[in-house]
Design goal:
Layout: E1 2-3, H1 9-17, H2 25-32, H3 37-45, E2 52-57, E3 65-69, E4 88-90, H4 101-106, E5 108-113, E6 116-122, E7 125-133, E8 139-149, E9 155-165, H5 168-173, E10 183-185, E11 187-188, H6 190-196, H7 203-209, E12 218-222
Parallel strand pairs: 3-9, 4-9
Antiparallel strand pairs: 1-6, 2-3, 2-5, 5-8, 6-7, 7-12, 8-9, 8-11, 9-10
The structure holds four DNA strands.
Length: about 260
DNA sequence: CCAGACGTTGTT
DNA sequence: GTCTGG
DNA sequence: CCAGACGTTGTT
DNA sequence: GTCTGG
């Protein structure tokens, strides 16, 4: 799964500012004193190394916190050894896995996305699809976060995106024959969002929230390459529709 | 997708 | 070059 | 007891 | 930090 953590930065920044201003991402970032102009340029130009994102936690549910993608549990000695292994957390096991259980209990968060990417396999080729919500510009996905301290006492906030079984739409798109089943991020409806951030909610009730959003709430279209030489990079145009002639007669029947 | 292996003998 | 494992 | 893992996906 | 496998 590939998230639009790169391309939705601008909308994230707008949301964070909580006003309808037409300022561009850099102006907003400077106002927020979260990212510098250089950070934004680097973000747009860079690949996948330690991407930063806004998360919304129970402590400050209305104010975003900057966190690095790839949860580093507080007890880890070397953050490099784990950060890119914890981009996702399987919803089925977040209360069992050593890396996630403390966060599952005490540090749940929300991340807002415009959509995410999956690759469809057909005749030995792969085609990237962008999947978004039919009704929402930005939707919340469930996350877990953690605060790690290095030997100098410096704090690093990190997060993982919780995944769940893929719905019917995902089963059609995400048909990599090597995978046992499709997966998708845990997308939350508005009332589930507040529950996910409710620190008093029992484990049993949290687990009830971990289920795939119905496929008819999502819509998908093909996009240009998102990785490699021809990729457009960390820019909004990465999610623009691009059609492939060989897919014109869709066998999926869904889009 | 990409990185890495890709092999056999049996005393180096 | 092609397959496999991650 | 101690060393080692602690994770998910398959193009983030 | 805590659990597992050896």
């Amino acid at each position: 799964m590939c998230y639009d953590i790169k391309t939705s930065l601008e909308k994230q920044l707008r949301r964070a500012l909580l006003d309808g201003s037409k300022a561009d991402a850099q102006e907003i970032a400077e106002k927020l004193k979260i990212f510098t102009k250089e950070d934004i340029e680097l973000h747009h130009a860079s690949g996948f190394k330690h991407p930063q994102m806004f998360i919304y936690t129970q402590e400050t549910p209305d104010t975003p916190t900057v966190a690095t993608w790839g949860l580093v549990p507080e007890w880890v000695a070397d953050k490099e050894s784990i950060w890119n292994k914890t981009l996702n957390a399987r919803g089925e096991t977040i209360f069992e896995k050593a890396s996630f259980r403390d966060s599952a209990t005490n540090k749940r968060c929300l991340i807002y996305l415009e959509g995410f990417y999956e690759h469809h396999h057909k005749n030995g080729k792969t085609y990237p699809y962008f999947i978004k919500h039919k009704e929402k510009d930005l939707f919340a996905v469930a996350g877990l976060w953690s605060e790690w301290q290095n030997e100098l006492g410096e704090l690093l906030k990190t997060f993982s995106i919780v995944t769940t079984k893929g719905n019917l739409l995902m089963a059609d798109i995400h048909n990599n024959p090597k995978l046992p089943e499709p997966r998708m991020p845990l997308i939350l409806t508005a009332d589930m969002e507040s529950q996910w951030l409710d620190g008093k909610l029992a484990q049993n009730d949290i687990e009830k929230l971990i289920k795939p959003l119905a496929g008819d709430k999502l819509v998908a279209h093909t996009v240009g390459p998102i990785k490699g030489k021809k990729a457009s990079g960390n820019l909004p145009q990465a999610s623009l529709e691009v059609n492939y002639a060989e897919l014109q007669v869709s066998q999926l029947g869904l889009f």
